[in-house]
Write a structure and sequence with these properties.
Elements: E1 37-45, E2 49-50, E3 53-54, E4 60-68, E5 73-84, E6 87-101, E7 107-117, E8 125-133, E9 137-144, E10 153-163, E11 168-179, E12 185-198, E13 201-211, E14 224-231
């Protein structure tokens, strides 16, 4: 199972959003690489959504680059157009960390990331994460001292998949976000989807929802989501 090295799910201004991105990054390197290697992924998403929150109602072209070094160390970057604050801008996420495998067979991953916006720098934020993964499931905890420049936050990210054949799999995601501070807030996001791998091309189609108090927070992502990505 892959652990997204960025902030998997990406989600809303201030505290209501939940990684990114993120976005996307993998612990597919849980077995420590014997030699350094660099890879990338160019993707088209129907909507840029993070942790159930919309960061852009229009299709977006996104780029991710990963570099795996000996000893399980990694670093990378993710870039995408985003709608936040005063309007359209570019989001850049830089991240790094280390991944490995325990004697029990569990994989672990820990790292740090920095999200920056091209126009509204008051939303820039840092996040640290740590997680464990089995072959088909993973759990990660993300912590930020000032999520989107606002209050401290914690996000629990759970992912799993079930193979439906050699190239097709059913995917599941559940996330729980809590914002601390004088105006605490908690919300959850759920997603189920189908992913097909055709060589270096991956196609995904899914359904997602956001569970939170009515009338609170940033715009929720559309229920239906789709993406296509090519690895290089």
């Amino acid at each position: 199972m892959s652990l997204d090295r960025r902030n998997d799910s990406r989600t809303s201004p201030l505290s209501t959003r939940g990684v990114r991105a993120a976005a996307c990054l993998s612990l597919a390197c849980a077995a420590w690489p014997a030699a350094a290697q660099t890879s990338g992924n160019l993707g088209l998403v129907s909507e840029y959504a993070v942790r159930g929150i919309s960061l852009g109602a229009h299709p977006a072209l996104q780029l991710r680059v990963d570099h795996d070094a000996p000893g399980g160390w990694y670093l990378g970057g993710f870039v995408s157009p985003a709608t936040l604050g005063d309007g359209s801008q570019t989001e850049l996420i830089a991240y790094g960390g280390r991944a490995g495998r325990l004697p029990s067979g569990l994989s672990w991953d820990a790292g740090i990331s920095r999200a920056s916006f091209s126009r509204d720098h008051e939303y820039d934020y840092d996040e640290v994460h740590a997680g464990l993964a089995l072959d088909r499931a993973s759990a990660r905890l993300f912590l930020s001292p000032a999520y989107y420049g606002a209050a401290p936050s914690a996000y629990l990210d759970l992912n799993a998949f079930h193979p439906l054949g050699e190239r097709l799999r059913l995917t599941f995601h559940a996330g729980l976000m809590h914002r601390f501070g004088s105006d605490p807030d908690t919300h959850a996001d759920l997603r189920v989807g189908l992913a097909a791998t055709l060589g270096d091309l991956t196609l995904q189609l899914g359904w997602q929802t956001l569970l939170r108090q009515a009338g609170s927070g940033a715009p929720r992502a559309r229920a239906l989501t789709g993406s296509a990505g090519i690895r290089f």
